[in-house]
Design goal:
Structural class: alpha+beta
Number of strands: 13
Helix content: 10-25%
Largest sheet: 9 strands, mixed
Shape: globular
Number of helices: 5
Distance between the termini: 30 Å
């Protein structure tokens, strides 16, 4: 009898694949049905996705809640319905003269324990339905805010209209919502341009396989 493959895989997800696509790819490669990820990445996002295989799927509940670290770029002057560049553009505004220090001051307002309203284009369920399915129908519903903790929201560089940033946060944080709210505070609007997850707990994307 062949021993069942089991363990935890660190995968560097490429842009364009859903987290479920990665799970399906690993199922086909291993011939094992018991495969699951421990925290969704949006299709456009890249970076660390932790995959549990075989009996190790029992570990998923302990891995899902770990803190996350992301790096990415925020585009000023653009507002979309999904808070990222995959959504429909709602506004295009002129970007004022800003310094990196001014951007950081706004980022600082979103650190610590805060309440965040999930975006309409998200997998959160309201009344038993996924929000993104309601959004596709043109519906907007009231969403309850969730308490999250943002340990760091750092402006690493600024080349208008793009702000390079790093976020360290608790599980369940929507980085695209942080960008949307920062853009509103800066007066010109903003949306998430690109995002890469670099760490989950003590696990780093540098140790992941493509």
């Amino acid at each position: 009898m062949t021993k069942e493959l089991k363990g935890v895989l660190l995968v560097d997800k490429p842009s364009g694949m859903t987290s479920h696509d990665v799970v399906d790819r690993i199922r086909r490669a291993t011939g094992i049905r018991r495969v699951g990820h421990t925290g969704t990445l949006d299709p456009a996002a890249t970076g660390l996705l932790i995959i549990c295989v075989g009996p190790a799927t029992r570990l998923s509940e302990y891995l899902t809640g770990l803190d996350k670290v992301y790096e990415g770029y925020m585009r000023l002057g653009v507002v979309t319905d999904s808070h990222d560049m995959d959504g429909e553009v709602l506004e295009e505004n002129e970007v004022p003269d800003l310094t990196l220090e001014q951007v950081q001051a706004v980022f600082d307002e979103s650190t610590g324990q805060i309440e965040q309203v999930p975006p309409m284009v998200s997998a959160v369920k309201v009344g038993g339905q996924r929000l993104y399915k309601l959004a596709r129908k043109g519906e907007t519903v009231e969403r309850k805010p969730r308490q999250i903790t943002v340990n760091e929201f750092a402006a690493l560089g600024y080349e208008p209209p793009l702000v390079h940033f790093r976020v360290s946060c608790t599980s369940g944080t929507y980085v695209r919502s942080l960008c949307h709210d920062a853009g509103a505070a800066l007066g010109c609007g903003a949306t998430l341009d690109t995002l890469r997850r670099t760490a989950v707990g003590r696990h780093n994307v540098t140790d992941a396989a493509p």
